[in-house]
From TrEMBL:
<feature type="domain" description="QsdR TetR regulatory C-terminal">
    <location>
        <begin position="91"/>
        <end position="201"/>
    </location>
</feature>
<protein>
    <submittedName>
        <fullName>Transcriptional regulator</fullName>
    </submittedName>
</protein>
<feature type="region of interest" description="Disordered">
    <location>
        <begin position="1"/>
        <end position="23"/>
    </location>
</feature>
<dbReference type="InterPro" id="IPR041485">
    <property type="entry name" value="TetR_C_36"/>
</dbReference>
<dbReference type="Pfam" id="PF18598">
    <property type="entry name" value="TetR_C_36"/>
</dbReference>
<dbReference type="InterPro" id="IPR009057">
    <property type="entry name" value="Homeodomain-like_sf"/>
</dbReference>
C-alpha cells in the first residue's frame, strides 16, 4: 500500500483581499486534492474563496463539483499506475497484471479513498464508473498506455485489441471493487487478480500477486 502525504487545512494559503483573481485550473485541482487526501469534503465554495474566484468560474472549467472530483481521482489513478509501473520488475502480460494489482490494492486500502466512498457512496460510484463521466475514460486511456508500453518495451502481444483489453480490465475492476455487493465480492482484490490474469492469458500457476515489486 502506498503512503500519500497529506496536507492539513492549516497549511493552505488564502489569496489576500483585493488581489486580482489569477487562479488556474491546476490550483483548483491542487486544493481539491489536498481536501480529498485529508479526508475532507471537497467544498467548491471554499476553494473558490481561497483562490479569489466565483463558483461559476470553477464550474465553467470543470462543469460541476463531480467534474472537479473526477479530475482529482483520475489524476491519483494515473500517478499511482505510473509509480507502480516504474517499480515493477516483470514484463509483458505479467507486468500489466502486477501493476494493476498494486493499483487495485491501493484503491481498497487507501484511507482517503475509503472515507470518500463512505461519505458519498452514490456520487462516488457514479463519478468513478460512468462511461461518459470524468474518470472512466481517463482510467481506460491510462491502462491503454500501460498496454502500449508493454508492447513497445516487452514485445507483448495482447490477446485482444488493446483498446478493448484496456476497457475490459477497467470494467472488471469496477465490478469487483465497487459494484457487486450482492455477490459478496466488493473489494476482493485477490479474486479480481485471478480474473484479470485469465483475461491477460496468464496461467493460474503463476498468478500469485507479487507484492514485493
Amino acid at each position: 500500500m502506498y503512503h500519500i502525504p497529506m496536507t492539513s487545512p492549516s497549511q493552505r494559503t488564502t489569496r489576500p483581499p483585493g488581489r486580482p483573481a489569477s487562479a488556474t485550473r491546476a490550483e483548483v485541482i491542487d486544493l481539491a486534492r489536498r481536501a480529498f487526501l485529508a479526508g475532507e469534503r471537497v467544498d467548491i465554495q471554499a476553494i473558490a474563496g481561497q483562490l479569489g474566484l466565483s463558483r461559476a468560474s470553477i464550474y465553467r472549467w470543470f462543469g460541476s463539483r463531480e467534474g472537479v472530483l473526477g479530475t482529482v481521482l483520475a489524476g491519483e489513478f494515473e500517478a499511482l499506475l505510473t509509480r507502480a509501473d516504474a517499480r515493477r520488475r516483470s514484463a509483458g502480460a505479467r507486468r500489466i497484471l502486477d501493476v494493476l494489482y498494486r493499483v487495485n490494492r491501493w484503491m481498497t486500502d487507501n484511507e482517503p479513498f475509503r472515507r470518500y466512498f463512505e461519505n458519498e457512496p452514490l456520487a462516488g460510484l457514479r463519478i468513478l464508473t460512468a462511461s461518459d463521466g470524468p474518470v472512466q475514460p481517463l482510467v481506460v486511456a491510462t491502462v491503454r498506455e500501460l498496454i502500449a508500453r508493454a508492447e513497445r518495451e516487452d514485445d507483448y502481444r495482447p490477446p485482444l485489441e488493446p483498446d478493448l483489453l484496456a476497457y475490459a480490465l477497467v470494467r472488471l475492476g469496477e465490478a469487483f471493487l465497487y459494484n457487486d455487493n450482492v455477490a459478496g465480492i466488493s473489494g476482493d482484490v485477490d479474486r479480481l487478480h485471478e480474473v484479470q490474469a485469465a483475461l491477460l492469458g496468464i496461467p493460474e500457476a503463476i498468478t500469485k500477486p507479487r507484492t514485493d515489486r
